[in-house]
């Protein structure tokens, strides 16, 4: 599943379509009446965490890549696109294996921009307040909660917790305030590292915990287990990552 940094890369890559008029559109699974998009002009292109947003004068198209989503800019595959957009200047934009939703409400009524880990409006204070309101929350679930850390996915979760030496099954309410701040700061720092490494094609080379078998600090096998309510895989070291109960 593309995480927030990858969606930010997408947003940067498609700025050429801002102000462009759509002359043809199609959807391959009928979840959307593609005819609504014809003759519409894109007014803006935004992102919120893992959501990519195509803005029009009276509505917004939300695209979620889910687990296996992908996109093509000015090219396409042999397989019909989930969403195909053709522009009057001959360019095209295609999304595959993605979830589509039409949003008619103002985006500010739907999205908390302070929750987007890579947004200039990000608020650490709000994140802490939201976590404190859920005393039984595990840190692995807190980081994966898109209403708290929008854009953080399983890769970022694992890399952040390993770097700050916190066990994924630690209870948020038991984590010291300083350590909780360390987690938040590392989540921001690593998300931007992810962004740069993903653009450079070197992301996997820098993983310290995700999909790894050995702890690079202690040279012992990393534990691998589905953790928390999300049941997403966590990689952790029993020796150097402290569990707060």
Descriptive notes:
There is one protein chain. By secondary structure, the protein is of the alpha+beta class. It folds into two domains: 4-110, MutM-like, N-terminal (N-terminal domain of MutM-like DNA repair proteins, Alpha-Beta Barrel), CATH 3.20.190; 114-236, Helicase, Ruva Protein, domain 3. Helix content is 26%, strand content 20%. It has six helices and ten strands, in the order αββββββββαααααββ. The chain has helices spanning 4-13, 107-110, 124-132, 139-144, 154-164, 177-200; strands at 22-27, 44-48, 51-55, 60-64, 70-73, 83-87, 92-96, 99-103, 223-227, 232-236. The strands form three sheets. A four-stranded antiparallel beta sheet has the order 1-6-7-5, with no helix packed on it. Helix 1 (4-13) packs across helix 6 (177-200) and helix 5 (154-164) packs across helix 6. The protein is elongated, with a radius of gyration of 20 Å. Belongs to the FPG family. One of its GO terms (molecular function) is oxidized purine nucleobase lesion DNA N-glycosylase activity. It comes from Mucilaginibacter terrenus. This is Endonuclease. Keywords: DNA damage, DNA repair, DNA-binding, Endonuclease, Glycosidase, Hydrolase, Lyase, Multifunctional enzyme, Nuclease.
């Amino acid at each position: 599943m593309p995480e927030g940094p990858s969606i930010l890369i997408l947003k940067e890559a498609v700025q050429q379509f801002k102000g462009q008029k759509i002359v043809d559109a199609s959807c391959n699974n009928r979840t959307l009446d593609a005819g609504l998009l014809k003759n519409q002009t894109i007014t803006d292109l935004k992102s919120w965490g893992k959501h990519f947003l195509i803005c029009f004068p009276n509505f917004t198209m939300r695209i979620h890549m889910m687990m296996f989503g992908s996109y093509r800019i000015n090219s396409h595959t042999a397989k019909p696109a989930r969403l195909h957009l053709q522009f009057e200047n001959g360019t095209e934009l295609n999304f595959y294996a993605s979830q589509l939703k039409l949003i008619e409400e103002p985006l500010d009524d739907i999205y908390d921009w302070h929750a987007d880990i890579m947004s200039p409006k990000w608020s650490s204070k709000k994140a802490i307040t939201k976590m404190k309101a859920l005393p039984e929350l595990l840190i692995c679930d807190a980081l994966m909660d898109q209403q708290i850390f929008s854009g953080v996915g399983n890769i970022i979760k694992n890399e952040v917790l390993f770097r700050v030496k916190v066990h994924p099954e630690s209870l948020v309410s038991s984590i010291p305030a300083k350590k909780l701040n360390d987690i938040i700061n590392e989540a921001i720092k690593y998300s931007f590292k992810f962004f740069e490494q993903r653009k450079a094609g070197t992301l996997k080379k820098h993983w310290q915990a995700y999909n790894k078998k050995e702890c690079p600090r202690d040279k012992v096998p990393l534990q691998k287990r589905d953790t928390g309510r999300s049941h997403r895989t966590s990689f952790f070291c029993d020796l150097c990552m402290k569990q707060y109960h």
